[in-house]
Amino acid sequence: MRRVREPGAVFATQTLRARAGCPSMTITAAEDLGETDELTQEAVEVDSRLWGKLGPDGDGRYPLICHLLDTSAAAFVLWDTWLRPGLRELITAAVAPNDEAAARAIFSAIAGLHDVGKANKIFQGQLYAKTADAAVRGIVEELATAGFDVTTPPSAVPGRSVPPVYKTVMRRHEAVSLFVQTGIWPRGSDAVADVWASVVVGGHHGRFHPRFDPAVRAADCLTANGFLAGLTEAKWGAQQQAHEAAVLNACGVTRTQLDQPVHGEKTTTAILLLTGLVMLADWLASGAESVAHGHGLTIDPVADPTAWMNSRRTEYFEQSIPQTLGVYEDLADPLTAIMGDFADSPSPLQDIAPTIGRGLWIATETTGSGKTEAAMLRHTAVPGEGILFALPTRATTDAMFERIACYYSSSTNAASLLHAHRSLNSFYTNAAQPGDGLHSTPWLADARNALFAPVSVGTCDQVLLGALRQKNTPVRLLALANRHIVIDEVHSFDHYQAALLEELLAWWGETDTRVTLLSASLPTAVALRYAQSYGGPSVTVAPHYPGHISVTASGATSASVTSQRSYSLRVNLQETPATTLVDTHLARALHYRQQSADTRIAIVVNQVQRALDIARRLAESGERVIVLHSRMAAGHRAAVTRELHEVAGKASGQRGVIVVGTQIIESSLDLDFDHMISDLAPAPALIQRAGRLWRSTAVVDGVWAAHRFPRPTPVPTLDVIVATDAAGLLDAGASLPYLPGELRRTTDALRRDDRDSRVIAIPADVQQLVDAAAFDPRSPDLEDVSGELELIAAARKLQDAETVVVPFHHDHNDGTILSRETTHRELSAVTEPDELAEYSTRHIERPTVDCFIVQPEGASKWVWRASVEAALHSRNPHVVRAVLALTFPLSASNVSAKTGIEEIPGFDLDDEQGMRKRGSMQRRLVPVRLVDGAVYDDLLGVRFR
């Protein structure tokens, strides 16, 4: 005989009443048994007939106790080999101050307890499933014979009307796991700090409970208690407690340790990290290979749960986690790997980078000055920490991935490329094996898991997703906080994206995550706001350009650096009526071509249609033209990007080409042009575009080294074409997607003494130019109507961001989620998006869809020639990649007869039945056909009618 907790709600009736989530109430099941808060009972043995996992056909029952112990074993290995030291320290301070061994065991125990709630009749009998297979029916009969109540609850009877709370409580085993921990269902107004263990296990499927979506009222708390009491009594409750006891004993943890409130001020931070860790441990333990290994183990998990768990830890997870999830491997000789032939001559920024320890580092230097290498050198200074490099577009992400792969060519690190069309990249189509440098693993190839790779390169969207209120936010926040985050081209973020980044910076500051932000043209006000987001509102710092800002828990510092690319840039402004804008670009390009047949010329415009018009006319005149813009199939765009690097890359020997493109050319593509002609754009964008001039030639103090090819002018020159309306003002239509206000400030800053030609000192004049053209919606200068329009547009973006973000930042009206007083309702909102809000990492002015053209007789190789069903329903990876290679984004309003691109009927995205037939990668694709003269041009991409 020994003293044990009574099953389920019975135990909770008195011991947890003081911190209960619901008003005083009676739980009938408890009173009928006549128990007190603790009773002396016979110990109940774990019943291994209860299952935790089933095979794909319902066979291969894997006992629940095995899955729980497996997850604890995986958790131990995650703590020891994957979780960075700073996060271990943070969690230790929260759950077991000054005792990391205890914190490690507590985390592993919580991980093991995540599925205790599966020991209930609804889960074991799949009573809410539309159909139960024969294996499950056999299990139900077996359990009934053993004395378990397996009767179908009234709520599971087909056609019966039940409260909405059933969907979020009785049908969710993790809700039962939560209830087993506390014995009572919490109210929304109760703080989470006192019941952190139940919060973590309740959130392990990506949504925190109780869920406060519109269908489930807080008043349903009483209803939930009644439901759950029925699922945690009698033999089911006894088994829940027996499984819990086995896990706690195996991990060396007591119930008292779990019932202690979380310590310190970082309560919500620790809860979010622990939830993410439990989710990750569960995913790793649930894999088919993991379960298969467990099936082969001969140890009895009921008789000796500790031996089972230790065997699984040492014999499986210590080997499998490095091979699946991956554990970061440091570069043996980072300076040589990153700098190559320039290892002995780093720039001043690169020289200081390895001395920057933890915290936020904002590095601002001229384009082509080696900021990427500086970020990598900073990264390698702290051993054992993974890296995620984020960029604005898919094209720049693919290009950066190749550079990062070169740095790691001698390592054995697992890696991921993070964007929607990554499967088209040669990294996946010609998969490398371990030992060949960066490689993928089957586990990381799954889109859900890719963010965890020790070395990741992705679009900024993959990072900004962590700021949004949505399912699985805790595990995404964990993945981000566990490595060094590098974000390039941060000046390219609009007010909406900047607001998302500010929230994440607050999270990273709370978790002491290393963050590096890179830019050649970041406004001073934005740099200061980023510094304050990471370090708190008291941070004050005066940025330098070129220079860097460092923000840590102890404060912020800034310093200037000497640039190794200091030179003069001539900027010529040429006004032209908007009606002749294309003609003006053509005339300027052909003028340069007449001067030299060998020059490489770039024309960068702000609108796709303008790029098409210019490129078409150049091609018709016999010029060699390369075109790059967003209205091209993904495979076409990738092929063009590769061609661009071949003909205009820094090492290219090819000459005599004209490249016509949109803003994509200005961001992180390592290209070199002799001449550049550009639409008027905001100052940061013009600085970036100009950075593609003479990029492969070294310059110090205005003295250019010997050019590989003759340059056509004494200094690099940027021609800026300014489109005007009939009144001689900036033409609003031609200015899109930019607002006239920001363009007017840019022209004012560029013009000096009313002259249309100016020599800009790089880098000396850059910050002044960028700041003069910048617009800060938090302190606007409303000089004219255009300023008011700009404020309205910016305010709308900031307001839209406010409705979708997790409130990490200190300046929210309702406070930050990172508070010791955070309630269940507030935490639930982190994983429960507002149904009325548009959730995206980019501000959506006009909805877009991903299209692919179906044209059985099509001449272009960038159209689908088979049936729509063959494209959408296939699970064959080669077919899926082929379809994705043909997709391109298009404004939903442009999918219409007026453009000649019509949606093919019968494949509506709102058709639930049709969606079930689609492959997972094809869920959001819209098949279209070309009519009335619209074509897909293998040079130009999609051309409307």
Automatic annotation (TrEMBL):
Transmembrane segments: none annotated. The keyword Metal-binding applies. Keywords: Antiviral defense, ATP-binding, Helicase, Hydrolase, Metal-binding, Nuclease, Nucleotide-binding. SMART domains: HELICc. One of its GO terms (molecular function) is RNA helicase activity. It comes from the Bacteria. Residues 57-284 form the HD Cas3-type domain. One of its GO terms (biological process) is defense response to virus. In the central section; belongs to the CRISPR-associated helicase Cas3 family. This is CRISPR-associated helicase Cas3. It comes from Cryobacterium frigoriphilum. The lineage of its organism: Bacteria, Bacillati, Actinomycetota, Actinomycetes, Micrococcales.
